[in-house]
Design brief:
With 496 residues, the protein is an alpha/beta fold. It has a domain of 220 residues: Rossmann fold. Helices cover 46% and strands 16% of the residues. The protein contains 22 helices and 16 strands. It has a 6-stranded mixed beta sheet with strand order 4-5-15-10-11-14, sandwiched between helices. Strands 9-6-7-8-16 form a 5-stranded parallel beta sheet, with helices on both faces. Strand 10, helix 12 and strand 11 form a beta-alpha-beta unit. It is globular and about 60 Å long. Bound molecules: pyridoxal-5'-phosphate (PLP). Pyridoxal-5'-phosphate binds next to helix 12.
Amino acid sequence: MRYISTRDASLSVTAAEAITRGISAEGGLFVPETIPELTMDELCTLAGKSYNHRAKFVLSRFLTDFSEEELAACVDSAYTDEKFDTDHISEISKVGENAYLLELWHGPTCVFKDMALQLLPHLLTASAKKIAPDKEIVVLVATSGDTGKAALEGFRDVPGTRMLVFYPENGVSAMQKLQMTTQEGENVSVCAIKGNFDDAQSGVKKIFTDPEIIKELAENGQMFSSANSINWGRLVPQIVYYVSAYVTLMETGEIIPGEEVNVVVPTGNFGNILAAYYAKKMGVPFGTLIYASNQNNVLTDFIDAGIYDRNREFFATASPSMDILISSNLERLLFDLSGHNDEAVREWFAALAEDGEYEVDDEIKEMLNEGFYGGYCDDEDTLDVIGRTFRKYSYVCDTHTGVAVKVYEDYLEATGDERKTIIASTASPYKFNDSVLAAVSSEEIPADSFDQAEKLRALTGLPMPRSLSDLKGKPVRFTASISREDMVEAVKKMLK
Ligand SMILES: *Cc1c(COP(=O)(O)O)cnc(C)c1O
């Protein structure tokens, strides 16, 4: 299996190269040349098997330059009893008639990003060993809150790697900030920037392709890679849990083999929903792919009009990990829908960089509307649905998942499509205590995050994850806050 770039389809590299480099030199994203197929028979053989077994099976289709032993070592180091609080790695909770919440937050930092970021460091170091032995891998991360912590936890003290995380100073929850600023590990560092996530992401993308810095790195025996979902090594582990969820629903008799299931995903950078798209393309019988946005509804407008327009007000919402106006992974979808038209992709993304806007042609609009449904909701509706879900089912979900549940309700109402539906539950409610507490309780909200958490626990009975309660009183290590113009300097300083 070879990987090509969305902005230069003639460029062809191995999976190890795609993962090590993170992003292609001309700014494109790596994608598999073809999507491997999974038959229904193969899906059925995965029933009764462990998550790790399923992961090895799916990954072996994409990462063909890895040996079976290499993949097994990566997977078995990532998904362990110590790091995940359930043997199943992810859990499924039935909430309502046809809805299944796929809980992807049972890992060490309580967010779905652990599913990929526990595996990525292993894939990355194994990849680098193949194509650039002896080089130190420098990983830069832009985070809207959750990626940063999950990446730090995945990479801390991994030999041969170094990491710097940038987060928007006022764009993350109190718990998210504490998770990052107290991070342990000799090889990792964290820095706040005065700006929003898009500023952090475009700053990091620019540094990745800055020839001067790349040269400096090469002289130091170092090279850049990415832990954001622009890296293929982030996306491929996410395909696994969609395959696995379908198999689990079959195994438990909730669905019959071949039955079509819809998928709802709360969306920011379009990575998680794209993984569901790839799973469907492999042959998992998924119906409509429903992506849910918060008030930063650039993707909802896009599916309606075919025009992607980031020139709009940016809202800081109760679901901060989705406060994004440039959804990087949409590029991969458009490349796929356009039949690998790298020229069109180059034009669209040049227009996006220059004017903040592009429009796709009618054919692509049609394909988008056939396979996808996009919706959004504001904070008020998000908190309202979290409250209603809790009162009705005694089930408490976080704000991002709340956005997905609300858009699912809207979808049901608009279409009457009653097929069984998987809703990606992306974070533990305890990462967003204040909002979740406000949604389920009418009492006054205490100011302190841990008091909020205790109240939430008393009210809902949901145990607080150890990794979050352990943050109390932990010393803060990282206090730097810089303007976005100074990101280059911060990177240079870290490299020394
Ligand atoms: C990152 C994140 C999302 C958005 O996922 P994308 O892959 O960027 O679309 C949704 N929910 C939570 C809790 C997140 O951390």
